[in-house]
Amino acid sequence: MEDTDAARDTRRDGGDNVDGTVVVELGGQGTMSRSVVVLTALAAVALVSEGKNVTADLNLMQHWDDNWEGKFCFDLPTGIVGYEIIMHFDTPVKNIQQWEADWVQQPSGCSTDLTLVNKESHGLHPAGQYCVRMMGKVCQGPPPTGHATLVDLTEDGMQVPTVPAPAGAAPMKYNYAEVLEKSLLFYEAQRSGPLPDSNRIPWRGDSGLQDRGQGGEDLTGGWYDAGDNVKFNFPMAWSTTVLCWSLLEFRDAYSQAGQLRYMYDGIRWPLEYFLKCHTKPNELYVQVGSGGRDHGSWTSPEQMDPNRPAFKIDSAHPGSDVAMETAAAMACGSMAFNAEDPDFSAKLLTEAKAIYTFAKNHQGIYSNSVNDAAAYYRSSNMTDENTWGAAWLYKATQDPQYLQEARQSYSHEPAWGFSWDEKIAGNQILLYNLTQDQSYKADIESSMAAWSKAGGMTYTPKCLAFRLQWGALRYSANTAFIALMAAQSGVRPAENRQWALCQIHYALGDTGRSFVVGFGTNPPTQPHHRGSSCPMKPAPCGWEAQQNPGPNPHVLYGALVGGPGSSDQYQDDRKDYIHNEVACDYNAGFQAAVAEKDSTVQGV
């Protein structure tokens, strides 16, 4: 693997109305399609009690003949990012002109009830008075009176139930069951495609429904990568493999935390997408969406440009690294679903074998074939993926040919880290557990030694192992998972467990603040994430939402942010994608480490 830091991760970003009801966004099958729905008065009162909606009377400024001019002035108790204004006039009006907002439905003729929604560049307003001025005509009778309710479209109504620690568990410094619950919610928030009835993220809806391959193949599904709306299969597949690995190793931990069903649903989502991506024996789609185009805009997945390019590898344009990673995810998935869903398990294993054969016979680095991926997830090597794919196929099939091929491509060297681009440490753990060959054990020890102070690793003053500023917590959490797997394998168990405990606890709050959104003390409130920064539909979303000085309208529960700088400095700033972006690969090793079930480390 390359030794330069830049090569390790080059990804860039980029109230109530007159009858006591409110208008909200709901839709079938978990969608957020535009519907006008009347909530019960009880629900309306609950929303108003939270100060989300504000009602104002019409201030009639002047009138002449049948013309009138007036304004609604709302006293906002908190800042807003997007809104609807639901107006009721006691006298029918027409020809209203106003410049603050857009009509939800363009009025025609005379009406007493009208609704506005903020313009894309005019949804952000601080606490205080906000007035909407307008003029129009009365259809008949005296000058109009009336009132309006400003509905704050940052309200999503999401409630996360408290997950107690498993009964009989040792006293814990942190509630790891809650961390698992919220991390799984983060992956649900990243879902692309048509969402199921079981969707638990009320501010997410159907998206990416037109994702198609170059021949029209259905490529809906999968996860959005990070704070953007692109589907990058290389880190997605690695994240799936690592999460699946944690399920194989720590199934009891998920079960005791009450998260087993959600975990199965969580990994099934990308696995079903990967099955769609394997469109021909020697053809695999590896990306949907253009990084440059996507990072040049700021909007939610539900409102993004639906015309997205798809990129593939094939025999003439190989990408054995991403193909091997996809095969590994499917092989791991086949084992995880063996008893849960035998038919799905068998299908995954069949496809894993086929993709492995394709990768083996057509070697090449995928980012050399897919130029659009090179600026975001450039692969630095493919030999580690060759070992990784073969080792997982051997674990799933016990076919000795796979083990032989894993050994042949294996490289004896200390691991720089464990990430979407480097599988060396994972290979060491897998092959040692599969063979008990002491040379692999020695390599594990060398890799962990390289993460010690004596081995040259940089540590922050508060003891975070600091490999790279871009997503520093991701690297330490991933390696914490490796350390725990090493401990389980009998490799310096006390030392490796304690080191992992320190790294995970740093993320959870040992420095006085949490780096996990929606968890613990003083967690991040402004993660660099488009969807959670956007108001509910029908409000539009653009760069104004990115510039919002307040918290994201929606809590992105469970997301691990990139983390601090080398001196533990951290600012909760949405615009800082180096330290405050989130990503599927950031949470993978972190969640896997938290799921480690050995009571000697109190649940980490």
Description:
- The strands form three sheets. The chain has a five-stranded antiparallel beta barrel with strand order 3-4-8-5-9.
- The model is unreliable at 1-51 and 598-604 (pLDDT under 50).
- It is elongated and about 95 Å long.
- By secondary structure, it is of the alpha+beta class.
- It is built from 20 helices and twelve strands.
Task: Give the topology.
Elements: H1 5-8, E1 23-24, E2 37-38, H2 41-49, E3 53-64, E4 67-76, E5 83-98, E6 101-103, E7 111-118, E8 128-138, E9 146-152, H3 176-189, E10 231-232, H4 233-256, H5 260-277, E11 283-288, H6 291-295, E12 310-314, H7 320-336, H8 342-361, H9 366-369, H10 371-374, H11 383-397, H12 400-409, H13 424-435, H14 438-449, H15 472-488, H16 493-510, H17 530-533, H18 543-546, H19 577-580, H20 584-594
Antiparallel strand pairs: 1-2, 3-4, 3-9, 4-8, 5-7, 5-8, 5-9, 6-7, 10-11, 11-12
Helix pairs in contact: 3-20, 4-5, 4-7, 4-20, 5-7, 7-8, 7-11, 8-11, 11-12, 11-13, 13-14, 15-16, 15-20
Task: Give the overall shape, derived from the CA principal axes.
Answer: elongated
Q: How are strands sequenced across the largest beta sheet?
A: 3-4-8-5-9
Low-confidence stretches: 1-51, 598-604
Distance between the termini: 30 Å
Measured by DSSP, the beta-strand proportion falls in 5-15%
Give me the Rg, rounded.
26 Å
Helix content: 25-40%
- For the secondary structure, the number of strands is 12
Structural class: alpha+beta
What is the helix tally?
20
Question: What is the typical, i.e. mean, pLDDT?
Answer: 90
Largest sheet: 5 strands, antiparallel, barrel
